[in-house]
Design brief:
By secondary structure, the chain is α+β, with helices and mostly antiparallel strands. The chain has one domain: q2cbj1_9rhob like domain (Jelly Rolls). About 30% of the residues lie in helices and about 20% in strands. A 7-stranded antiparallel β-sheet has the order 1-8-5-10-4-3-2, with helices on one face. A 3-stranded antiparallel β-sheet has the order 7-6-9, with no helix packed on it. The radius of gyration is 18 Å and the shape is globular.
Length: about 260
Amino acid sequence: MIRFREDLGFYSAKLRQFRARRIDPTLTNHPEHLTKLRRDGIAIVKDFIPPDRIAAIVDQISNKTDLLTERTSPGIVKRNARFLLLEPEQALPSTRVFFQNPEIRGLARAYLSKDAVPDRPAVQLKADIGEKAIVDFFHIDEWRYLISVFLLLTDVGPDEAPMVYMKGSHRQRLWRIPKEREFFSYYDRQSDGQYANEESPYCGCLLPTEARRLRERHGYSEILCTGQAGTLIIFDNLGLHRSTELRANKRLILSSYWMLPK
């Protein structure tokens, strides 16, 4: 009986999400990015923000926060081998070129719904060489429709912890139902971004053998998300993706989610 109620709650919530989503290409001035996002689950846009604006953001992070030094400020938390400076826009007004960007807003709403809203803005830093995390396994991030947007503030090559995305894995397939149910039933997060229970870090994760079988069975292909500072990466969080460990230098990005209203 308990399992039946859980299943009913999950499928009812999924149906509400399905009804609320409305893909509308007229909401974006960049249909080519929307096409890639719908086909592959990910779009990478080079030179999205010019170098002088990127430099201004990095200077402000360095001068107005201790994210790049001691990392002791109350707004900084560590999660999954990353330091996160949460809600940074007020302290770092130069970041508004990203967080309030009309092109990003239009693309997110074209993909999700005209009512889609941003969530969990942050500055992310990877600085600890060789540190591993559970998200180094392929995983999905949610049971509901959700996209992430990253702006690279430093050059990210193979050694600077690029994300790996499995193209095409965002589409609806039977394999994802148990993973999405895990999120619906067990995932919980505190207001500071930390996990609220022992199950949450593992929700949506696949073993390497599971990921390999899905890749081979469905013909998915992997993309290594490298790029120069100023590159924009936008991806569907229902697609399989994983982080990689930092092997050199550091990785600094701005990040934000976009989702349907709760």
